Amino acid sequence: MSIRTETFLHVTDEVEDLLKAHIPYSLPLLRRLQTSKYRQAGASTSTESRTILVTGAHDDGRPQHQRFTAAYLDLSGGPETQMWLYSTLENAKLPPSHDDEAYYRKQLSELVRAVTSLVREYGSEAMHYPGGLLLGTLSTPVRRLLEDMDRVRPRATGYYDKWLFRAEDLPPEGELAELPRGMRPLLASLPSEVIRLDNGTPVAWAFLGPDGSLISLHCEEPYRRRGLSKALAAKLMRRGPGAYADDGWASADVAGDNLASRAMCKSLGGTRHWEVSWVLFDVTDDGVGDSG
What we know:
Pfam families: FR47. GO terms for molecular function: acyltransferase activity, transferring groups other than amino-acyl groups. Residues 140-292 form the N-acetyltransferase domain. This is N-acetyltransferase domain-containing protein. InterPro entries: Acyl-CoA_N-acyltransferase, Acyl_CoA_acyltransferase, GCN5-like_dom, GNAT_dom. The chain is an alpha+beta fold. The protein has two domains: 3-159 and 276-282, Aminopeptidase, CATH 3.40.630; 163-275, 3-Layer(aba) Sandwich (Aminopeptidase). It is 27% helix and 32% strand. The chain is built from seven helices and 13 strands. The chain has helices spanning 13-20, 27-39, 98-122, 140-148, 228-239, 259-267, 288-291; strands at residues 2-8, 49-57, 63-74, 83-87, 132-139, 152-153, 159-166, 183-186, 192-197, 202-208, 213-219, 249-255, 271-282. The strands form two sheets. Strands 5, 6, 7, 8, 9, 10, 11, 12 and 13 form a nine-stranded mixed sheet that branches. It has a four-stranded antiparallel sheet with strand order 1-2-3-4, with helices on both faces. A hairpin with a 4-residue loop joins strand 9 and strand 10. It is globular. The two termini are 34 Å apart.
C-alpha cells in the first residue's frame, strides 16, 4: 500500500474525528489540536503551525485511515513543546510485527520529510533549538522507531508515566475540601483553578497544558494537608480545557520517582498506562547519525 501525506494550515474536522476514534492513546495530540482549533483560533499565523496527516492510500489515491500517523507543529513555540505526535502504532497491545514495523517506519519517514520541508520554509535560523523541535509526550514505541531513524536527541528529563483519569472516577464534588474561611476560588481565563486569600494572595493553583494535561499543581506550605490540591485538580480535570473536550478523559505526565504526584494521581482515581518522554526531534537533512 502506498503512503499519502497531507499538510493542513488549520485543524480539520477529518483529523479531529480520526483522533477521537483512538482515545485514549490519541488524547495528547487531540487536545493540542482542539486547543488550537477552539481556544487559540486566529492566534497563530499560518507560517508557524501546521497539522500533518500520514495515511495509507488506495489505488485510486483515496486515503486509507486504518493505520495513520498525525502530528501538530508550532514552529515558534520554543522553548516550550513545539510538536505533538500520535500513531496508531501506539494502540497495539503486543510488539508490532515485522511488516507492521516496516509500514510505520515508512509513515514516519514521510512525516520526517514533511516536517523538515516545513522547517526549511520557516527558516532554521528562527528555530529556538538549532536543528531540532521539542517533541513532547512521545510514546516509547514510536520513539524507538525514530531513534532507529536517527531522529531523536535524548534530553536529561528522562521518561514519564502517562496517567489517565475518567470524569466518573474523580472524587465527587461533595467529597472535596471546603475552602477555609478567608479563601476564595478564582477561575482564570486559561485552563486553571486558583485559590486566593481575600486579599488576593494565591495559595493554591492548578494548570492544564496546551495538550489538556495537568502540568502544575501547587499549594503553599501553610495551607497544605487540607485537601486543597486534590480539590483543585479534580475540579479542573472535570471541567477540562473547554466545552469541546466532552469525552470525559484527562491526563497527567508523572516521573516514576515522583512519589507524591503518583499518590495524588491515585487519590484522584487515575491509572498509569504508558511511558512517554520529551525529546528533540532532529530536523536536519541527514539526522543525528550524520550531523553529530
